Amino acid sequence: MPDANVENLRAMLAVYSTQTIQALSEAWRRGEVDPALLALFDPEVTYEDYDLPDHAGEVFHGLQGVLEATETWSEPYEEITNELQRIVGSGDCLVAIHRFRARARYTGIEFDQPSAYVYTFRDGKIVRIQGYWDPQEALAAAGLVE
Fold first, then answer.
1. How many Cβ atoms are within 10 Å of 116's Cβ, its own excluded?
2. 3-state SS of the chain?
3. Class of domain 4-141
4. Has residue 111 got a pLDDT over 70?
5. CB 3.0–4.6 Å: which of 10, 31, 32, 50 could bond 27 by disulfide?
């Protein structure tokens, strides 16, 4: 039987992989994001970064906080994609491993590296997101070391 949290996370991340982060953020701000996507988040969701740029160590609260974190994170870049590679885990703790590609807005420096997010679910909704550059650190934090 498929894991509902895995399927919901995969559906949410499919939206991210079909648009640039900036385009999705702008659509979210205009209220044009599919309500089914927003329904996957608990209203009290928290977003934390441990070593991603611009807000390492900060905690953002609620849907507005997730939007703010996304905008802060994407601001230095002219273009960003964060392509899903795979999802590890099952049940209420999942790790999404991505390929992060970006070009810096002012310097033109290009990035191509892995990134990962630990997603914690409660009652089918995302209650916590933690961002990492190193997928192995994310897997270890989730207790899913491969």
1. 25
2. CCCHHHHHHHHHHHHHHHCCHHHHHHHHHCCCCCHHHHCCEEEEEEEEECCCCCCCCCEEEHHHHHHHHHHHHHCCEEEEEEEEEEEEEECCEEEEEEEEEEEECCCCCEEEEEEEEEEEEECCEEEEEEEECCHHHHHHHCCCCC
3. alpha beta
4. yes
5. 32
Measured distance CA(82)–CA(116) in Å, rounded: 10
Euclidean distance between CA atoms 28 and 71, whole angstroms: 10
The span from the CA of 9 to the CA of 90, in Å, is 11
Cβ(117)–Cβ(129) below 8 Å = yes
Tell me: the pLDDT tens digits for 32-58? 777 777 888 999 999 998 665 555 668
Q: Where are the domains of the chain?
A: 4-141
